[in-house]
Amino acid sequence: RKKPTRQPRRHLLRTVIATMAAVDEFGYQVVVEVFKRGLDLAQRKACVCDGQKSNWTVWEQHLKALGFIPILDILHLLAYLYAAAQALGGTAKECWERYKQWLTWAWSGAREKLMLALNAAVAAVGAAPNDAAESDRRCVIARTRTYVANNLEKMDYPRYRKLGLPISSAPVESTIKQFNKRVKGTEKFWRKHALEAVLQVRAAQLCEDGRTERLWAMPRPYRPARPP
Question: Measured between alpha carbons, how far is 27 from 21 in angstroms, rounded to an integer?
Fold first, then answer.
């Protein structure tokens, strides 16, 4: 008898928000969407982001008190680990084995071992001078060590998997690409106030809660298609 393959579970409902506003205002839009969706009432919920500080500021200010578990996107982490493993040097096999070991420690929750290994790597290559290029191997390794140290508490991946929580922001990244196809490109030029409206329409189109229909059903005052 053929063993059934596991199929990915589709989200029950996707909603999307976007804005040209600064991250402080965007944080309030995020929490409004959370309450509209009733996500604050979920027993298990997560905020999955890369290591950008502004993302975690939104979590700290708006989502932490609601019980959202902060999770560092593992795909961003593995990119940092791979870069540092290569920068440390050695044969191709040695670099690959080093990367596998570091990623295994991250995946299995052995964060202390990973941190010790990165500290040792930084010590082995030494500190980079102030005028060193970003591609300098000392900078690459130090940057990875700092990235891991800043996000260590958000890397308990065995616990997240046990809870059934996502550990990658790939769905968000793919959604961003759908925005980019609409608003970016060498042949696209936007007035700033017009682009905000385009983002709102595109976000509504990507939502699955009938938002597009409600948007187009709203009455609109007549005005020229192009501003004077």
Answer: 10
Tens of pLDDT, residues 128-174 = 999 999 999 999 999 999 999 999 999 999 999 999 999 999 888 89
- Return the H-helix or E-strand segment holding 129: none
Q: Decide if 66 contacts 57 (C-beta within 8 A).
A: no
pLDDT band at 183 (very low <50, low <70, confident <90, very high): confident
Q: What is the pTM of this model?
A: 0.85
Q: Which amino acid is at 95?
A: C
Instruction: Classify 133 in phi/psi space as left (phi over 0), alpha (psi -120 to 50) or beta.
Output: beta
d(CA 128, CA 138): 5
Q: Copy the structure tokens of residue 195.
A: 């682009």
Which tokens is 196 given? 């905000």
What is the 3-class SS of 167-211, one letter each residue?
CCCHHHHHHHHHHHHHHCCCCCCCCHHHHHHHHHHHHHHHCCCCH
